């Protein structure tokens, strides 16, 4: 019977815009990730409001720069506390730490020709600290973090001009951290530009109007090309670097065994998941997209040069975030819905959902791992998995989170089943290994960590770090290479 490989990367994941804070320190420019356009407009489960968040709201949030800030900009002050945090990760036994570099810390407006040394130095220091404990960095180049200037003054991802700035940024960090970072991920959840367009590309329906869908698909096309450009640069600069690609994996089941529903599942999977990974791993925009563009009256500009870059620079590995599974049907009106803060999806009567409507499905992890392996035969990383929950800090600073342990345990057990099925899983990262600001709701109270951070939804608290019960549990899991759960 197979076990997890000896060099399996037990990890924890974060993102700069959700944990660093220090949004206006060290020469950093503003980024999409700093903006918190909709709170208090957005309620936990009101997807409609989130989808229609307007540019006006963004501007309002932008205008209050320096005053009345919402906690997202503060993050959890990782910028000043990274040493303390990494020490805790070492105590936990983490083999790998997923973090992101904030693009506007390096190029504040995105367009500068010379990088900001203070920003580069910060990540040098973080890598040194990780090296001290032998923790392997897994680095995202863009985690919802495009410089705001590029969005407001350069048409963002809508035109190929951004690829010039992107390439400059990518070359800069690949050169600077050569030999220190082996695993690079150009984009977090590249399909996010379609399901949360303002976070992925700064797109708003009230600005784009009838071109909204067209803009979303044009932007994601250039992001796919940008992902391949990162691979092209890595080949030249640091051949030891391994470049991946990542989606938020929406594993989808048919609501019934009616052939129409089963066929709809294939289509949903193609459009929501495989379009991105097929393009980046097989090097070709899949033919089903031609039909999709035609049926949706989309006229996406795709040059021969774009196709060439994609075909010559396929990713070395594939990754996804896995939190839940969905249900679809040929007739979506008939579906009973579950409304999460990310997407509206069909309800699965066999699954329980988290407080935020995310349907927990450990077997779906084994299922999707098999699907991804069968399709690509490339190494796979689960770069995010975890349970967002409200935790209670007891008077003695303990936090009892058996629900989180149950969630993680059941997913790791199913991941082991996939390993036994022969799937080449390289690593597993608990999302929000330390509590941080939620990207979807911008709340602090949606916590994922095995480490608690004392801060509330309004940025109040001591920011002290406390170990939850799940800390000792994950420590044991890592020490036993996933066998003692
Ligand atoms: C993913 C993002 C993360 C993270 C996570 C949890 O989509 O890559 O940034 O936040 O989801 O989502 P949320 O914070 O909305 O609960």
Automatic annotation (TrEMBL):
GO terms for cellular component: cytosol. The active site is at residue 384. It holds the Pfam family Glyco_hydro_1. Keywords: Glycosidase, Hydrolase. Gene3D superfamilies: Glycosidases. It comes from the Bacteria. Transmembrane segments: none annotated. GO terms for biological process: carbohydrate catabolic process. GO terms for molecular function: beta-glucosidase activity. The keyword Mitochondrion does not apply. The keyword Transcription does not apply. PANTHER family: 6-PHOSPHO-BETA-GLUCOSIDASE ASCB-RELATED, GLYCOSYL HYDROLASE. Belongs to the glycosyl hydrolase 1 family. This is 6-phospho-beta-glucosidase.
